[in-house]
Amino acid sequence: MSATVCASWARRLAAGWCLMVVCATPSLAQNFPSRSVRIVVPYSAGGSSDVVARVIGSELQRQWGQPVTVENRPGASGNIGSMDVVRAPADGYTLLLQNDTMLTNLAAQGKLPYHHENDLTPIMLLGRGPLALIAHPSVKASNVQELQAAGAQVTGQSYGSCGIGSPSHFVMELLMKKTGLSFSQVGYRGCAPVLTDVLGGQIPLAVVSANLVVPHARSGRLRVLGISSAQRYPLLPDVPTLQEQGLQGFDMSTWKALMGPAGLSPDVVDRIARDVARILDDPATREHLEISGIEPLRGSASDLAHLIKVDANRYREIARSGRMIIH
Predict the structure, then answer these.
(1) Are 87 and 113 in contact (CB under 8 A)?
(2) pLDDT of 4 over the 90 cut
(3) Model's pTM, two decimal places?
(4) CA gap 211, 83 in Å, rounded
């Protein structure tokens, strides 16, 4: 066979192979999923991240006709479950329900056992929720101005956070920086036990997830002094934000996001995001999440990647100014 004929056949084979690859790539997403999918929540069961994962997971299972299991893998401030996903194959069958604790840990500890951008694939920003500055009724203040006016009476008192290095810790650090107030942190394991101690009068102040305080604020068992987001919280519409109370630029909310291992196919990312968006458009789902303190969002993978970059820098700056680095 001549060299010209051989070269011609080689080109045809190469072209045919390329066509097979190009045609096969979309079918990966079209056939996804062909087996069970696992959503890893690197935090304890019952928290807001767990609620989101289970709402999304149950609806995806219905849509896909494949089992979707939610697996709680708490420990090491979320690092154990996150590393489970980092090490998983990049095929879409192991997903991560992450929140901004990943970035507050990074800022407070200086490093993580994985790279928050390079080792994970952003899929979708699912929702966000504000935090609330709360006080026991014995504290003679109903807003930030009155807390500042109390001055020496409150300076040095303890406040409860949902954990050392948690978003609530960062909210209070920023509040102290902007007001000049000074409090001593007591770090709890989650927001629920903090709330219990504020209600019982064991600790006078705390920063916790806003949805947890709604029934107690309405009953008068505690006071909500301010909301951390730029907009008022719909379930507590009469409580002004910290920004409204003169703390310019104060806009901090916790967020929930769906991620996967690094290298996840864009086609699979798009398929998952499209199906999850359909879930978040459902009025009953939105109401369920809102009652749980989460404002449903439909942020794209690029929106999430941008938010991660911005928040990583913001939390790092708060940690440095507040000398929060934890070794």
Answers:
(1) no
(2) no
(3) 0.84
(4) 29
